[in-house]
Amino acid sequence: MSAPHLPETLHGVIGWPLGQSLSPLVHNTGFRVLGIPAVYLRWEIPPERLGAFVDALRLLDIRGCSVTIPHKQAVMPFLDVVSERATLAGAANTLYWKDGALCGDNTDVAGFLAPLGAEPLDRMDALLLGAGGAAHAVAAALRLRGCRRVRVCTPGNRRHLDLAGRFGFTPVAWEERHDLPAGLVINATPLGMHGKTEGETPYDFARAPGVPGGIAYDIVYNPARTRFLCEAARA
After folding, report:
1. 98 is catalytic
2. Are strands 9-15 and 64-67 parallel, antiparallel or unpaired?
3. Distance of CA 71 to CAs 5, 33, 95, 135, 199, Å?
4. Which strands make up the sheet holding 94-98, listed edge to edge?
5. In contact, 139 and 150? CB cutoff 8 Å
6. Using 50, 70 and 90 to split pLDDT, how confident is the model at 38?
7. Does 3 score more than 70 pLDDT?
8. What is the three-state SS of the chain?
9. Average pLDDT over residues 97-107
Protein backbone atom coordinates (compact mmCIF):
# COMPACT_ATOMS: atom_id res chain seq x y z
CA MET A 1 0.00 0.00 0.00
CA SER A 2 1.37 3.41 -0.97
CA ALA A 3 1.83 6.08 1.70
CA PRO A 4 -0.83 8.79 1.80
CA HIS A 5 -0.03 12.14 0.19
CA LEU A 6 0.40 14.28 3.30
CA PRO A 7 1.00 17.97 2.52
CA GLU A 8 3.94 19.67 4.18
CA THR A 9 3.54 23.08 2.52
CA LEU A 10 0.48 25.20 1.79
CA HIS A 11 -0.14 27.11 -1.43
CA GLY A 12 -3.19 28.63 -3.11
CA VAL A 13 -4.85 31.20 -5.33
CA ILE A 14 -6.65 34.36 -4.21
CA GLY A 15 -9.29 36.28 -6.13
CA TRP A 16 -12.90 37.43 -5.98
CA PRO A 17 -14.72 35.41 -7.22
CA LEU A 18 -12.84 32.21 -8.10
CA GLY A 19 -15.44 29.93 -9.63
CA GLN A 20 -13.62 29.97 -12.98
CA SER A 21 -10.12 29.15 -11.68
CA LEU A 22 -8.44 25.93 -12.81
CA SER A 23 -5.31 26.68 -10.78
CA PRO A 24 -6.03 24.18 -7.94
CA LEU A 25 -6.52 21.36 -10.46
CA VAL A 26 -3.33 22.26 -12.35
CA HIS A 27 -1.10 22.68 -9.31
CA ASN A 28 -2.40 19.77 -7.24
CA THR A 29 -2.03 17.48 -10.25
CA GLY A 30 1.55 18.67 -10.64
CA PHE A 31 2.31 18.15 -6.96
CA ARG A 32 0.89 14.63 -7.11
CA VAL A 33 2.69 13.60 -10.30
CA LEU A 34 6.02 14.98 -9.08
CA GLY A 35 5.62 13.55 -5.59
CA ILE A 36 5.79 16.97 -3.93
CA PRO A 37 4.14 16.92 -0.47
CA ALA A 38 2.14 20.11 -0.94
CA VAL A 39 -1.44 21.23 -1.40
CA TYR A 40 -2.90 24.15 -3.38
CA LEU A 41 -6.20 25.65 -2.24
CA ARG A 42 -8.73 28.21 -3.49
CA TRP A 43 -9.24 31.30 -1.33
CA GLU A 44 -12.00 33.73 -2.29
CA ILE A 45 -10.96 37.01 -0.70
CA PRO A 46 -13.16 40.12 -1.02
CA PRO A 47 -11.20 43.32 -1.72
CA GLU A 48 -11.75 44.75 1.74
CA ARG A 49 -10.13 41.64 3.31
CA LEU A 50 -6.97 41.58 1.17
CA GLY A 51 -4.73 43.15 3.81
CA ALA A 52 -5.98 40.74 6.46
CA PHE A 53 -5.29 37.82 4.13
CA VAL A 54 -1.68 38.92 3.58
CA ASP A 55 -1.28 39.09 7.36
CA ALA A 56 -2.61 35.53 7.58
CA LEU A 57 -0.29 34.43 4.75
CA ARG A 58 2.68 35.61 6.81
CA LEU A 59 1.39 34.12 10.07
CA LEU A 60 0.51 30.71 8.61
CA ASP A 61 3.71 30.48 6.54
CA ILE A 62 1.84 29.94 3.26
CA ARG A 63 4.69 29.20 0.86
CA GLY A 64 3.27 30.44 -2.43
CA CYS A 65 0.22 32.15 -3.80
CA SER A 66 -1.25 32.93 -7.20
CA VAL A 67 -3.14 36.21 -7.53
CA THR A 68 -6.01 36.90 -9.90
CA ILE A 69 -8.87 39.39 -10.43
CA PRO A 70 -9.22 41.87 -8.74
CA HIS A 71 -6.10 41.71 -6.52
CA LYS A 72 -3.13 41.83 -8.91
CA GLN A 73 -2.56 45.53 -8.48
CA ALA A 74 -3.99 45.99 -4.99
CA VAL A 75 -1.70 43.36 -3.42
CA MET A 76 1.55 45.14 -4.33
CA PRO A 77 1.70 47.63 -1.40
CA PHE A 78 1.51 44.69 1.04
CA LEU A 79 4.70 43.04 -0.31
CA ASP A 80 8.33 43.35 0.83
CA VAL A 81 9.92 43.00 -2.63
CA VAL A 82 8.42 43.52 -6.10
CA SER A 83 10.21 42.27 -9.23
CA GLU A 84 11.13 44.46 -12.18
CA ARG A 85 8.53 42.71 -14.36
CA ALA A 86 5.78 43.23 -11.81
CA THR A 87 6.82 46.85 -11.35
CA LEU A 88 6.70 47.46 -15.12
CA ALA A 89 3.33 45.72 -15.40
CA GLY A 90 2.02 47.44 -12.28
CA ALA A 91 0.59 44.08 -11.19
CA ALA A 92 1.75 40.94 -9.38
CA ASN A 93 0.24 37.51 -10.05
CA THR A 94 2.66 35.36 -8.04
CA LEU A 95 3.73 35.61 -4.40
CA TYR A 96 6.65 33.67 -2.92
CA TRP A 97 9.24 33.83 -0.16
CA LYS A 98 12.95 34.59 -0.63
CA ASP A 99 15.39 35.14 2.23
CA GLY A 100 12.52 35.84 4.61
CA ALA A 101 10.94 38.47 2.35
CA LEU A 102 7.49 38.19 0.79
CA CYS A 103 8.07 38.79 -2.92
CA GLY A 104 5.79 39.53 -5.85
CA ASP A 105 6.44 38.71 -9.50
CA ASN A 106 4.47 38.74 -12.75
CA THR A 107 4.56 35.62 -14.91
CA ASP A 108 1.81 36.97 -17.17
CA VAL A 109 4.34 39.00 -19.19
CA ALA A 110 6.31 35.98 -20.39
CA GLY A 111 3.14 33.90 -20.55
CA PHE A 112 1.46 36.37 -22.89
CA LEU A 113 4.44 36.53 -25.26
CA ALA A 114 5.08 32.76 -25.46
CA PRO A 115 2.23 31.88 -27.90
CA LEU A 116 3.17 34.81 -30.17
CA GLY A 117 6.58 33.28 -30.84
CA ALA A 118 8.44 35.25 -33.49
CA GLU A 119 5.46 37.30 -34.69
CA PRO A 120 6.80 40.66 -35.93
CA LEU A 121 5.13 42.86 -33.34
CA ASP A 122 7.42 45.72 -34.32
CA ARG A 123 5.53 45.86 -37.62
CA MET A 124 2.07 45.35 -36.13
CA ASP A 125 -0.66 47.57 -34.69
CA ALA A 126 -2.48 46.19 -31.65
CA LEU A 127 -5.82 46.91 -30.01
CA LEU A 128 -5.90 46.19 -26.28
CA LEU A 129 -9.36 45.79 -24.73
CA GLY A 130 -9.25 46.22 -20.97
CA ALA A 131 -7.12 47.97 -18.35
CA GLY A 132 -7.00 45.66 -15.32
CA GLY A 133 -4.11 43.65 -13.92
CA ALA A 134 -3.93 41.28 -16.89
CA ALA A 135 -4.07 44.20 -19.33
CA HIS A 136 -1.13 45.84 -17.55
CA ALA A 137 0.92 42.66 -18.02
CA VAL A 138 -0.05 42.60 -21.70
CA ALA A 139 0.93 46.26 -22.02
CA ALA A 140 4.33 45.55 -20.46
CA ALA A 141 4.85 42.64 -22.84
CA LEU A 142 3.92 44.71 -25.89
CA ARG A 143 6.29 47.44 -24.76
CA LEU A 144 9.13 44.96 -24.22
CA ARG A 145 8.63 43.49 -27.71
CA GLY A 146 8.43 46.92 -29.34
CA CYS A 147 4.92 46.64 -30.77
CA ARG A 148 4.60 49.33 -33.46
CA ARG A 149 1.45 50.95 -32.16
CA VAL A 150 -0.98 50.05 -29.39
CA ARG A 151 -4.46 51.47 -28.95
CA VAL A 152 -6.32 50.76 -25.72
CA CYS A 153 -9.94 51.15 -24.62
CA THR A 154 -12.36 50.12 -21.88
CA PRO A 155 -16.17 49.97 -21.74
CA GLY A 156 -16.40 52.86 -19.29
CA ASN A 157 -14.07 55.10 -21.34
CA ARG A 158 -12.06 55.92 -18.22
CA ARG A 159 -9.90 53.17 -16.71
CA HIS A 160 -7.67 52.87 -19.78
CA LEU A 161 -6.46 56.48 -19.63
CA ASP A 162 -3.90 55.84 -16.89
CA LEU A 163 -2.63 52.70 -18.64
CA ALA A 164 -2.30 54.53 -21.95
CA GLY A 165 -0.39 57.38 -20.32
CA ARG A 166 1.92 55.05 -18.44
CA PHE A 167 2.95 53.00 -21.47
CA GLY A 168 2.69 55.67 -24.15
CA PHE A 169 -0.26 54.00 -25.88
CA THR A 170 -3.10 55.70 -27.74
CA PRO A 171 -6.42 55.83 -25.86
CA VAL A 172 -9.54 55.40 -27.97
CA ALA A 173 -13.22 55.57 -27.11
CA TRP A 174 -14.95 52.22 -26.62
CA GLU A 175 -17.47 53.20 -29.29
CA GLU A 176 -14.62 53.65 -31.82
CA ARG A 177 -12.85 50.34 -31.22
CA HIS A 178 -14.11 48.81 -34.47
CA ASP A 179 -13.10 51.75 -36.66
CA LEU A 180 -9.32 51.25 -36.71
CA PRO A 181 -7.56 48.22 -38.26
CA ALA A 182 -5.45 46.12 -35.90
CA GLY A 183 -3.28 43.12 -36.68
CA LEU A 184 -3.51 41.97 -33.07
CA VAL A 185 -6.76 42.28 -31.09
CA ILE A 186 -6.44 41.32 -27.41
CA ASN A 187 -9.30 40.66 -25.01
CA ALA A 188 -7.99 41.49 -21.54
CA THR A 189 -11.48 42.06 -20.12
CA PRO A 190 -13.44 39.44 -18.12
CA LEU A 191 -16.10 39.34 -20.88
CA GLY A 192 -16.56 35.76 -22.02
CA MET A 193 -15.26 34.21 -18.80
CA HIS A 194 -17.12 31.25 -17.33
CA GLY A 195 -19.87 32.59 -15.11
CA LYS A 196 -22.10 35.60 -15.51
CA THR A 197 -20.30 37.01 -18.60
CA GLU A 198 -19.91 33.72 -20.48
CA GLY A 199 -21.37 34.15 -23.95
CA GLU A 200 -20.43 37.84 -24.09
CA THR A 201 -17.65 39.40 -26.17
CA PRO A 202 -15.97 42.80 -26.13
CA TYR A 203 -15.48 42.93 -29.90
CA ASP A 204 -17.55 42.44 -33.05
CA PHE A 205 -15.24 41.21 -35.79
CA ALA A 206 -18.00 41.64 -38.38
CA ARG A 207 -17.87 45.42 -37.80
CA ALA A 208 -14.08 45.73 -37.91
CA PRO A 209 -11.80 46.24 -40.94
CA GLY A 210 -10.12 42.95 -41.73
CA VAL A 211 -6.34 42.63 -41.50
CA PRO A 212 -4.76 39.76 -43.50
CA GLY A 213 -3.03 37.40 -41.10
CA GLY A 214 -4.51 39.19 -38.11
CA ILE A 215 -4.44 37.58 -34.67
CA ALA A 216 -7.21 37.44 -32.06
CA TYR A 217 -5.81 36.79 -28.58
CA ASP A 218 -8.06 36.04 -25.60
CA ILE A 219 -6.69 36.24 -22.05
CA VAL A 220 -9.77 34.32 -20.86
CA TYR A 221 -8.95 30.59 -20.65
CA ASN A 222 -12.18 29.16 -19.24
CA PRO A 223 -13.98 28.28 -21.46
CA ALA A 224 -11.21 27.41 -23.92
CA ARG A 225 -13.32 28.56 -26.89
CA THR A 226 -14.90 31.87 -26.01
CA ARG A 227 -17.39 33.73 -28.16
CA PHE A 228 -14.58 36.19 -28.92
CA LEU A 229 -12.40 33.41 -30.40
CA CYS A 230 -15.26 31.68 -32.21
CA GLU A 231 -16.32 34.88 -33.95
CA ALA A 232 -12.70 35.70 -34.78
CA ALA A 233 -12.32 32.30 -36.44
CA ARG A 234 -15.44 32.88 -38.55
CA ALA A 235 -14.09 36.29 -39.58
Report:
1. no
2. parallel
3. 31, 30, 12, 13, 24
4. 38-44, 9-15, 64-67, 94-98, 101-105, 81-82
5. yes
6. very high
7. no
8. CCCCCCCCEEEEEEECCCCCCCHHHHHHHHHHHHCCCEEEEEEECCHHHHHHHHHHHHHHCCCEEEECCCCCCCCHHHCCEECHHHHHHCCCCEEEEECCEEEEECCHHHHHHHHHCCCCHHHCEEEEECCCHHHHHHHHHHHHCCCCEEEEECCCCCCHHHHHHHHCCEECCHHHCCCCCCCEEEECCCCCCCCCCCCCCCCCHHHCCCCCCCEEEECCCCCCCCHHHHHHHHC
9. 96
| Beta strand pairing call for 184-187 and 81-82 | unpaired
Evaluate the omega torsion of the peptide bond into residue 70 and state whether it is cis, within 30 degrees of 0.
yes
Give how far Cα 84 sits from Cα of 103, 105, 107, Å. Answer: 11, 8, 11
The pTM (predicted TM-score) of the whole model is: 0.77
Residue (of 187, 71, 192) closest to 131 by Cα position: 187
- Distance from C-alpha of 106 to C-alpha of 90, rounded to nearest angstrom: 9
Between strands 125-129 and 149-153, the pairing is parallel
Report the distance separating Cα 203 and Cα 71, nearest Å.
25
Catalytic residue among 11, 27, 72, 160: 72
Q: Which domains are delineated in the chain?
A: 9-106 (3.40.50.10860), 110-234 (3.40.50.720)
Hey, what amino acid is at 87?
T
Cα–Cα dist 177/32, whole Å: 45
Length of the chain equals 235
Q: Higher model confidence: residue 56 or residue 21?
A: 56
User: If phi over 0 gives left and psi between -120 and 50 gives alpha, with beta otherwise, what is residue 155?
Assistant: alpha
